[in-house]
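User: Last request for today: this protein with beta-L-rhamnopyranose, please.
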Amino acid sequence: MTDKYYALFEEQQKDRGINIEKVKSKIKQLKVETPSWGFGDSGTRFKVFEQEGVPRDPFEKFEDAAQVHKFTGTSPSVAIHIPWDKVDDYKALKSHAESLDLSIGAVNPNLFQDNDYKFGSVTNVDKSIRQKATDHLLECVDIAKEVDSKIVSLWFADGTNYPGQADFRQRKKWMQECLQTMYDKMDSDMRMLIEYKFFEPAFYHTDLADWGMAFNMANKLGPKAEVLVDTGHHPQATNIEHIVAYLLDEKRLGGFHFNSRKYADDDLIVAAHNPHEIYLILQQIVAAEEDSDQGVVSTAGNIAYMLDQCHNVEPKIPAMIRSILNVQNLYAKACLVNLEELKEAQEKQDVLRAEQAVREAYECDVTPLLQAVREEMGAAVDPMKAYQESGYAEKILTRGKGGASW
Ligand code: RM4
Ligand code: MN
Ligand code: MN
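Assistant: Here's the final one, the structure of the complex with beta-L-rhamnopyranose:
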């Protein structure tokens, strides 16, 4: 691309000491998985608003996800949630995905919607319910094997509402027992991602409330278990990038659920609120990637990036495209930090210069860079516009209302 804006951009970055070819190849490698459930109807605890044209079954969810990948070139896999995406023939779902240039990504068990789980799943005081929950975890390992997915991603709603309601220490042991059974059934190249969340649906305690608990659990289970960071799952003002750096160094950062929030676990379009937070997270990852090129081991090169969003009031496919573009945009900025300069400033304890090195990249307009990269990748230069002009949104209206939902 020799467009005048890109030419200027390239010159500016070269002057800043940035290896632009390397940056381009890093952006091309960034892949972000979409969640099947983000294409279906969703809502708040007050109301699920039905949208016209929502996929009616898992196969149609993949068709919609294929649109996101078609125009962005950046979302080649789709996470599934069981039983929301339960089908009779998983091999058929897999071939359907492949026919759309997609693969099946993380398999997510659902241990929060059955009446039996009212007081907990893997932490329930009733042994038969713990067994039922464990059986579902094992079922998900089998599904992952059948569709050649290497990831089973776990989130538990387990928790309590009142002091004294349950025995924290006992529940901790039960959870570990159930997860160990699942762990032992996983092939050596499979990964268990353990997600934490400090509240909701339980309001007093959650059994895996924070990264420390998830990390401890992963450590106890073994190397196939890693932590998943959902950006909406922390108390306000938590320094998530610090958690990310810590887990990277401990080789236990397995994946992300990107989304944005203002108050609680809002699951909004990623980076719609506080894009700077996502930037700082990605900047830690880029720095660790650079260190791995120098031989410092971390999990930076092996992170499963996923969206976990629900689009309650906005059309779902463009919301997903927006999210992918936002992650890509912030990752591109993170790649523009001059890490040598940053290191030098840190060594000299030059606080202002170090802060400037991180801020300067954030302030760059990466539009010409991303356009050039997309053109080289064969994706749409303006994916949102291309989708909107494609006619797909109008075509799916024939599906009517009342599609898949939770
Ligand atoms: C939870 C959590 C999980 C997701 C469910 C639907 O809050 O983020 O990752 O599977 O929502
Ligand atoms: Mn999540
Ligand atoms: Mn969540």
